[in-house]
Structures are given as C-alpha cells and as structure tokens.
Recover the amino acids of this structure.
C-alpha cells in the first residue's frame, strides 16, 4: 500500500472512530479554508494599493522638487522691491501661478477630478474679497477651479496660519508671494494685516483676498460646539457650516472700500464621496494615487456682491455675513439630499491645454 493510501485509510478510520462521516469532515475543511481566504486580503489588491500609494508619494516629491527652484527665483526677486514693489509682486504671482496651475492640472486632468460650477457668472480678472466654507485642506482645488478660469490663479492671497511659512516649497512660496500669514489673533495680527493691505492698495496689483470665515475646518466636534454656542447666544443653529467669525471680514471690506477691489465673492464648496457620503474629501495620497472620477464629485457655487451695496455699519455688515452663512447652510442641505440634480450648472472653459 502506498503512503497516500495509508494516510487516507488512517483518516477514514479516525473519522469512523469519531462517529463522523467523511463527507462532513471534508465540508468542514472546505469551510475553514473559505474563512481563512475571507480573512486574508487579496495579495494582488494589496500590491495594487501599495503601487498607487508609491505613485502618489512620487508625484508629491516631484512637486516639491519643482517648487524649490521657483522659491529661489522668488527670493531673488526681492532685490527688485526697493525699485518696484509692484513688479516684484507681479513676478511672485506668476511664480505662484506656475505651481498652482500645475497642481490644478494634476487634479482635474490627470486624476480626473470633475468639478461642477453654479451661481453667478463672474468676470475675468476682477479684483475681489472671497470667503468660503472650510471642509478640508483640499478646498483650494475647488476655489482655484474658478480662479484658474478667471485668470486670477497667481493673484490669490489667503489668510493662512503663520506656521505654514516654515513648510518647505509650498509654505515658503506662500510667504514670498505675500500671503496674509496670521496667528489667528486679530489684535496681534492687525498691524501685519494692515501693512499687507496697504501694499496691495498702493501697488494696485490684481488680487483675490481669500479667507475661511469659520476660522477652521468643520468637524463633528467643532460643529457641535458651534451649535451649542449659537443656542446660548440666540443665533441661528447651522447644520452644515460653523458660525462665521466676522471681525476680520468686516475689517477687510472696510479697508478696501473705494479701492481697486469692487466685489465680494461668496463661495460654497461641496464634496461627495460615493462610498462615505456628503462632505467627505479625498486625502492628499488619494488625490494623487488614482482617478477621482469613480468615487468623488465636487461642486462650487458662487455668488457675487458689489462692495458699494454692502452695509457700511460694522454690526450690520457682520449680520450680513452671518446671513450668507445661513443661506449657505440651506444650500448645502439641498446638495446633501439631491446633489446638483436640480441645479443650473455653468459651463466654464477649461484653463488647460
């Protein structure tokens, strides 16, 4: 008798002694194998996922490598400031535009991030104060989808955290192009902000001054805190945005009345993850690892107001900003339920070749 036959005979004898049919034992072994296979991830899927993550990291490294020589050019441009601050600011804006447009091209064309637009049609190259709700670090892709189409990509100046200026490449470029780097304390930041505003007004350069009036990205914890504060103060309780912090906005509008800035843009941005739901944004790695078209949808709604039509009283202007967020909250609630099915979408020409 062969070794295999002997082993089979032993298995049958052991099974009979245990009063279990051979068929039942075989079915048990098959079931155990299926459980193991179910618990173990598919090796091929793990490999694909790993390769995609490596691809994303390589893209980000390439972006950083590209940013560094641009930063050097920006530093060199500082020698021009004593002779022509305006030309230095314009040059730094072009340097910034080369980076922002590259990142936007990767998002929209390479990774197929489809961004839809609705609302008011805004003119090209118009100077404006811009405010938006704040969902994720990736919000700038949605804002820049409009800026790039209106030829203002290199003219975006954000209110940004002061600590970002120490970030190699990206942060250095923000500081060198004159972003409004603040520590989120209006009293301490006021003189710095007034200095930047003064430079913008005196040089009459193209500009979008962009801020997130909520002051921080929305999270369930922060939303609950904002709602509790609203109830305590008798203010509107919002479900999709935080209460706006209006002091900086009021000061910005007042600083630019009667200047080259004629309009205020109210941006409402929205994300939809087909797996995880509304207002779930992709991570930095996810954006650059594979196509966004299958899993994500992005939308931007814009409203345009003339500064001359805004209230001149500070309290009334603050109330005006709050009312915009009440409207924003209702609009986002509609998107949450039906996305853009009943929206009139704008057809904006692509800024890319």
């Amino acid at each position: 008798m062969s070794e295999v036959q002997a082993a089979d005979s032993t298995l049958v004898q052991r099974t009979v002694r245990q009063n279990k049919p051979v068929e039942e034992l075989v079915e048990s072994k098959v079931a155990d194998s299926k459980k193991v296979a179910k618990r173990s991830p598919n090796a091929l899927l793990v490999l694909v996922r790993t390769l995609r993550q490596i691809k994303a990291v390589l893209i980000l490294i390439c972006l950083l490598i590209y940013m560094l020589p641009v930063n050097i050019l920006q530093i060199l441009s500082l020698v021009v400031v004593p002779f022509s601050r305006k030309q230095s600011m314009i040059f730094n804006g072009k340097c910034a535009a080369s980076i922002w447009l590259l990142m936007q091209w990767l998002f929209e064309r390479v990774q197929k991030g489809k961004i839809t637009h609705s609302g008011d049609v805004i003119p090209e190259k118009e100077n404006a104060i811009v405010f938006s709700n704040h969902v994720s670090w990736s919000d700038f892709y949605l804002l820049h989808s409009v800026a790039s189409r209106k030829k203002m990509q290199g003219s975006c100046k954000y209110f940004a955290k002061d600590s970002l200026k120490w970030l190699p490449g990206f942060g250095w470029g923000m500081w060198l192009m004159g972003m409004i780097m603040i520590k989120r304390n209006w009293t301490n930041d006021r003189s710095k902000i007034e200095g930047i505003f003064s430079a913008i007004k005196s040089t009459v350069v193209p500009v979008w001054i962009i801020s997130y009036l909520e002051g921080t990205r929305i999270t369930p914890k922060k939303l609950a805190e904002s709602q509790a504060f609203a109830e305590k103060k008798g203010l509107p309780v919002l479900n999709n945005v935080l209460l706006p912090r209006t002091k900086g906005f009021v000061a910005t509008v007042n600083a630019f009345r009667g200047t080259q800035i004629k309009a205020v843009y109210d941006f409402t941005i929205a994300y939809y993850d087909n797996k995880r739901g509304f207002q779930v944004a992709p991570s930095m790695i996810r954006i650059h690892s594979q196509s966004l078209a299958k899993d994500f949808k992005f939308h931007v709604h814009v409203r345009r107001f003339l500064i001359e039509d805004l209230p001149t009283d500070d309290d009334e202007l603050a109330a005006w900003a709050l009312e915009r967020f009440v409207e924003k909250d209702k609009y986002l609630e509609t998107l949450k339920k039906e996305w853009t099915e009943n929206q009139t979408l704008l057809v904006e020409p692509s800024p890319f070749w």
Summary: The CA atoms of residues 143 and 273 lie 19 Å apart. Confidence is low (pLDDT under 50) at residues 1-8, 14-20. The chain is about 50% helix and 15% strand. The two ends are 76 Å apart (CA to CA).
